[in-house]
Every structure is written in C-alpha cells, then in structure tokens.
Amino acid sequence: TVKAQGMEEMWDSSASKKEHPNIQWFKDAKFGMFIHWGLYSKLAGTWKGKNYYGSGEWIMNQAKIPVKDYRKIAADFNPVNFNAEEWAQLAEDAGVKYMVITAKHHEGFSMFDSKVTGFDIMDATPYKKDPMKALSAAMRKRGIRFGFYYSQFQDWYEPNGGRNTWDYDESKKDYQSYYRQKAIPQLKELLTNYGPLGIVWFDTPGGMTKEQTAAFVKELRQLQPNSLFSSRVGQGMGDYKDFGDSEVPPVPIEGAWESIYTHNDSWGYIAHDMNFKSPDEIIKLLANVASKGGNLMLNVGPDGSGKIPEYSVKYLQRAGAWLKKNGAGIYASTAGFIPAQPWGVTTAKPGKLFLHVFNRPLNDTVLVPGFTNAVSNVYALDGAVKLPFIKKGEDLYINMAAVKNVRSPNTVLVVEFRGTP
Ligand SMILES: C[C@@H]1O[C@@H](Oc2ccc([N+](=O)[O-])cc2)[C@@H](O)[C@H](O)[C@@H]1O
Asked: Pick from 277, 371, 250: which is nearest to 355 by CA?
C-alpha cells in the first residue's frame, strides 16, 4: 500500500478484499441512472435502411460497419437539444442518488473534450462543446454523485483497441500501445477535468495481465482515491460487483453490488424500440433489488439530438413521485430478513422491517411468517396509517384494510420491533 497526499492510506483493491473506505454512500444510494449516449444514438438502430434490434450501442459491430464509414457519423452529430440542467433535473425528480454516463463506449468515440484524440465531440463534430463539463456541474449542484463509463478494452475505432475484428486482425494487435496511448491518458483526463467522480464504470476487461491491471488501477486511484471502481475493471479489483445485464440475484448477496437494467430493450437509443418498462415495473424492480441488498442502476438512451425519450422522462418522474412518499423503505435500507412472500418482498433498517406489498391479499390480511421479534407498531409508510396486527406464535398478521390507495404498485408497511432479528 502506498501513502498518498491527504489520504492516510491509499486503498488498494488488489491487496485486500476489505471494502473501499468510501463505499457506504453507494450502499445507501440504492438507485442510480445509467446513460448510454454516443454516435450510435444518431443511428437510432438503423444502418443503410436496415433496422437492428437490442443494444443500439452495438450497431457498428452488428452491421460490421468499417471505421472509414462509421467515423463519418461524427460530422452530422450535433446534439442541439442537449440540456444538462434538464437531464440533472430528471435525475433529481426520479430520486436517483448517482448517475453514470458513457464518456467512451466500444465505438471508440469520445463524448468529452479529449486532447488525446481527434475522434471526439470537440474536434470531429459541429457541436464543438463538452456536454460532460455541463452535466458534471449540473449534477454536482444537485449533490447527486456523478461518474463515467469508460470502455477500457473494447475500442472498435483504434487499430490496437479491442474487438474490431472486421477492420483489423485481432491477433496482430498491440493492446499495450492502445492502453498507453489512449485508454490511460483519457481516463486521466476524465479523473482530472470533471471534479470528484463518485464512480468509474468499466466494461469488458481485456488485453492486460493481473499485474498490469493492478498497476492500471493504482495509477488511476492516485487521481481520485475516493472514487469507486466498478467490478468490470477486471481481475477482482473493483469496489463493488456488477451482475450481468438485466440480472438480479435470486437471494440476498452480501457486500456492495448493483443490477443494471435497460429501460426498454436497449442501452443505446433505438427509435423503433418502445418496450419501455412501466413506472410500476420500475418501482417493483427497485424494491426487489433492494430486498436482496443491492442497487438498481436504470438506463436511459438519449437520441442523437440530445433528447431523453419521452417515456423515460415520464416514467422515471412517476417512479420518483413514489419514492418521494416511500423512499424511507428503500434508501439506506439493507436486505430484508424475511424472504420474498406471495404479497411481495422486504427491506430492513435497525428495529424496522419494511414490507413491500406488490400483491394486496384479497382479504387485506398480510401474513409475515417466522417473525420472532416482539412487534411494537405497524403502519403504512405513505400517510403513516396505523394498522392493527396480531401475532400467533411466530406468525404476524397485519390487516391493511385501512390503506385506501389500492392502485399503488407497491404499498410499503412498516413493522417496528424490539431487539435484533
Ligand atoms: C451495460 C452493457 O455492458 C456491456 O454488455 C455486457 C457486459 C457484460 C455482461 N455480462 O457480464 O453478463 C453482459 C453484457 C456492453 O457491451 C453493453 O453495450 C452495455 O454497455
């Protein structure tokens, strides 16, 4: 471990598996916004008149578009509708506690002002402004954590970057030169020019040994010791775990972890993909992930003009409205000690168990089996409506007839108890 200015000890993920000293905000956050935005957003899922479905950000790979053709998109990329305040306000209204946006995805195009390449939004587009500068400032103003997604290995623009196998011979690539000349200098720009970053989100590790990854991580941590690195940095050197796409573990998982979900069926914008998850689905998914002790990072895919799809705006605002009333059952909660039940799931805090009732029992009687602790009070969170309850042995029965709002996708009941579960 190396001594660093100001930090009594530089946290070194490769050395010990103890948690990052700055992990608690992430564990308490529970809800984040993911943003995939790049040149692919302008293609909107179509190339040469052919529609592609799923993962719009992979269209260059799906259609095997040569770099000489793909780079031309930049000349028409002019997101005049991009409004950092609007995006940041949506994050606030949605109730997310952090945002992670693609600074550079696999296509290799830099959505920020980079001195390392000419294939960036300042030099290669008519837009000539740095949206990441405005967005990081707008988020900081609202006290919502901000971070970047940087595709550290896959770079389909660079001859020595990972995984463009249709223009370049993968076996001939010198990945180290790509890391030295592009990935590392660009990550240093991102960790230097946009203020404190809550998170650096990596994807698809590759082209580096364990030792090289350790050196890579150590070099970057020196710039922002407090920043959390996601698990896809590789070699187990991340600070929290990311599950596969749109995956929730079946049972509670210890430690800091995150489930990432698309809002429709694609990370990048696809004009013909309207399969947006409803506000109810978002609220249930968030409670489901929280009931197992994790965070949900939900994605939006702005279009090429810089507009976040209307359904994402409306539905995230609706989910945020629910969180304004019921956030106490989510933020800073831990996994529920009563497993999922026919009526829903549970989350916990010291002396409190939150019942997330998705499916209201027909007779309005909620059974919580195996509840050993003595119960002192039960009420519905939204409106603090006290509810009658009885215990038969370890079975707790709650009558929720007094809860009028029958339409809620998730009615949160609070069980206050003595002792520890
Ligand atoms: C968030 C997504 O991350 C990756 O896709 C993955 C990476 C890893 C897994 N995985 O580990 O299951 C699945 C999809 C990217 O390729 C994709 O474009 C998107 O950015």
From this structure: 371
Centre of ligand 1 from the C-alpha of residue 264, in Å: 15
Question: What is the domain extent for residue 189?
Answer: 24-329
- 248 and 343 fall within a common domain: no
Our mutation pick for probing the ligand 1 site, out of 203, 231, 260, 265, counting the most ligand atoms within 8 A of Cβ, is: 203
- Using DSSP's 3-state secondary structure scheme, residue 413 falls into strand
Question: ipTM score of the complex?
Answer: 0.98
Cα 125 to averaged position of ligand 1 atoms, centre (Å): 27
Q: How many domains does the structure of the chain reveal?
A: 2
Dist. CA 244 → ligand 1 center (Å): 7
Centroid of ligand 1 to alpha carbon of 115 (angstroms): 27
Q: Which atom of ligand 1 is nearest to the CA of 242?
A: 11
Nearest-CA residue for ligand 1 atom 4 is 203
Same domain, 28 and 170: yes
CATH number at residue 407: 2.60.40.1180
Prediction pTM value: 0.95
> How many angstroms separate the CA atoms of 316 and 276, rounded?
11
Strand partners, 183: none
Predicted confidence (pLDDT) per residue in 92-143, tens digit: 999 999 999 999 999 999 999 999 999 999 999 999 999 999 999 999 999 9
149 alpha-carbon distance from chain centroid: 10
